[in-house]
Design a protein that fits this description.
The chain has 234 residues and is of the alpha/beta class. It has nine helices and seven strands. The strands form two sheets. A five-stranded mixed beta sheet has the order 3-4-7-5-6, with helices on both faces. Strands 1-2 form a two-stranded antiparallel ribbon. GO terms for molecular function: inositol diphosphate tetrakisphosphate diphosphatase activity; phosphatase activity. It is an enzyme of class 3 (hydrolase).
Length: 234
């Protein structure tokens, strides 16, 4: 039984925290109206000088960066290479996501994906994956390791990159997946847990950290190595 769809059952604090709440439809409609008036993002040449005290041509790096103001999803960050993480993308984040040239989105929550997100993916040629995970909570709810392995097969496949990984808040389920990515990168547990706590604050879950530590990455490491997907490059 899915308690998220049964109004007779009251969610506890942790379940309520993890539960996805759809964007207000009026906000979605307003976004659609604005989208019809807007133009695709433009790029400008930007010069990075390193070190900053030098101005000769050899120290200048020229990049193209988007012009305008963009709103990334909460807890957005680059994990490594073309792998990104965030909270659930909302309509106000779509313009920012376009600048990433995503090939794939991996959703880690089991709820039905919103139609506006599906439409955004379709219009932008973004492949959608969903591996619904239950958050780690006492006493009996735990993430299934086999689902994490399936998620890692999607993430480490270069054909799916650039890829965005997200759950609801980008803290716990996403934190567990990223922690297991770090294990594939041979990070120490102390470094993995430091990163997990940074994004999970102020609701760090000891069970998440225990899961990361106990997760057996033998299968995914062999699977990805045989396909020459490892190591994951920065």
């Amino acid at each position: 039984m899915n308690i998220s769809h049964n109004p007779a059952i009251e969610l506890d604090e942790e379940d309520a925290y993890d539960k996805f709440e759809p964007t207000d439809r009026s906000k979605v409609e307003e976004y659609k109206k604005q989208e019809q008036k807007s133009h695709p993002h433009r790029l400008e040449e930007f010069i990075i000088t390193e070190p900053k005290t030098l101005q000769d041509e050899e120290t200048k790096i020229r990049i193209n960066r988007p012009i305008g103001v963009y709103t990334p999803p909460e807890n957005f960050a680059m994990v490594c290479g073309s792998i990104y993480r965030s909270s659930f993308p909302r309509v106000e984040n779509f313009e920012f996501l376009q600048t990433l040239n995503l090939k794939s989105v991996l959703c880690l929550i089991p709820e039905e994906y919103p139609p506006e997100n599906l439409e955004f993916n379709k219009v932008n040629g973004i492949r959608f994956f969903q591996v619904g995970l239950s958050g780690n909570k006492e006493p009996f709810v735990k993430i299934k390791p086999e689902l994490v392995t399936e998620a890692l097969k999607i993430i480490t496949n270069p054909a799916n990159q650039p890829i965005l990984i997200h759950c609801n808040r980008g803290k716990h389920r996403t934190g567990c997946i990223v922690g297991c990515v770090r294990k594939l990168q041979k990070w120490s547990l102390s470094m993995i847990f430091d990163e997990y706590r940074k994004f999970a604050y102020p609701k760090e879950r000891p069970l998440d950290q225990q899961f990361i530590e106990m997760y057996d990455d033998t299968e995914i490491e062999l699977y990805a190595s045989e396909r020459h997907w490892l190591p994951l490059h920065w």
